[in-house]
Amino acid sequence: MAVYPKVLSLIPEMNGCAMWRTVWPAEMLQQQGYFAAWDWSHNDSVVDVIHLFDIICYPRQAWTDMEAAQKFIDNAHRFGKVIITEIDDDVYEWREQQKSHAELGIDKQQATIEENRASLLMMDGATVSTHRLKSVIQSFAPDDFPVEVVANYIDLDWWRMMTHGWDRQVDGLTIGWAGGDRYEEEFRVLGEAWRRIARTYPNVLFVIQGHQPRHLVEAVPEDRLIPIDWLPITGGPDKPPYCVGLLNIDIMCCTVEQTMFNACKTPIKAYEATASGAAVVGTQWLYGQAIDNGKNGLIANTVDEWEQALSYLIDNPKKRAKFQRKMMKKIQSQYSLRVNAWNWSEAWRRIYAQAVPRIKNRVLIPGIDS
User: Fold this and answer.
1) Of 210, 167, 170, 189, nearest in space to 282 by CA
2) Strand, coil or helix: what is 127?
3) Collapsing DSSP states into helix, strand and coil, what is residue 112?
4) Are the CB atoms for 112 and 73 separated by under 8 Å?
5) Which SS3 state, helix, strand or coil, does residue 297 take?
6) What is the pLDDT of residues 312-332, one digit of tens each?
């Protein structure tokens, strides 16, 4: 009978990555009887409970003081702890294909590729979100360094709870995009398609939630553009949760450039849009993983393909609804956290089994090491 390690994940702040990769999994696993928890990395009281856990996970960890980090990890090993990380972006090979902190206006030191690699290799293992990201790590990590893939699974129960009681704020048919800041080139094709759609369909509105890409903003008339500020994932005193804003989009445009950085990502925007009631059109790169073209959504890569796909869904409301229902069924069966949460515990169990022999001066834990 498998014995699963007890896992505590520590995060510095709440954001989408923390929710998808730490908070949701830990809370769902608790419901299902596993010993998993999360807390804030700056919570001093964590020291009072850390002895209860076998694995301590530091998601997206990049150490700045390597000497101090090594002392910390060595000490953790002496107390029988396995230290791992959790990674959902390629910060090891193609980071320059994503905007830097300086370009984003974030006043926070950003680790270099070399520092990220060094930080990772100090750990005892890692979970990652895609097989591509695993292959990136395996290109520079030792052969015996444990890396386990756990895909992104959406917590539909949480999504329904957080959107319950909120009304849509935009009247009329809408096409939309939602996301964070990226290089403008990623929006050139979609922007031209929106320009054509705006001319052909004078009653269609356009919703942009979060970053406001210039190619999209300038493509449509100002009086038909509904900008929505970036909303906190769990909401705030004067703001609804992020998922509530998505309720205002009928047709979601999921587009990424064909880059190696994007190859390591997962199509969660399609899951989020579907859970919020939208039909999805997406690029083959990345979103082809989720969209079965013509069955539960549409694939579009060129300007002409985007125009054709969006026009089709505007003209066929029954198809929009059918695509959304079919995508929802696929998500419920394949990408739902409730169905797939066990993958996290299995990944941690395999990492633990591989990591223990690599750790010197480790205190054996009965039941786990036997």
Assistant:
1) 189
2) strand
3) coil
4) no
5) strand
6) 999 999 999 999 999 999 999
| DSSP E strands, 172-313 | 174-179, 205-210, 225-228, 251-254, 279-282, 298-299
DSSP-assigned states of every residue in 13-64: S-SHHHIIIIIHHHHHHHHTT--EEEEETT-GGGGGTGGG-SEEEEET---S
The pTM is what?
0.91
- Per residue in 166-225, pLDDT tens? 999 999 999 999 998 888 889 999 999 999 999 999 999 999 999 999 999 999 999 999
Tell me what percent of the chain is helix, strand and coil, each rounded to the nearest 5: 45, 15, 40
Task: Give the DSSP H/E element, type plus range, for residue 126.
Answer: strand 126-128
Coil, strand or helix at 198: helix
Q: Which helix (H) or strand (E) holds 82?
A: strand 82-87
Instruction: Please count the other Cβ atoms lying within 10 Å of the Cβ belonging to residue 61.
Output: 22
Give the closest residue to 248 by CA, choosing from 230, 280, 226: 226
Residue 4's Cβ-side half-sphere holds a number of Cα atoms within 13 Å equal to: 17
Q: Which of these, 246, 207, 221, lies nearest to 324 by C-alpha position?
A: 246
Strand partners, 205: 174
Instruction: Dihedral sign for Cα 184, 185, 190, 194, please.
Output: positive
Separation CA 35–CA 283 (nearest Å):
39
Q: Whole-angstrom distance between the N-terminal and C-terminal Cα of the chain? A: 12
DSSP letter for each residue of 232-268: PTT-BTTB--HHHHHTT-SEEEE---S-HHHHT---H
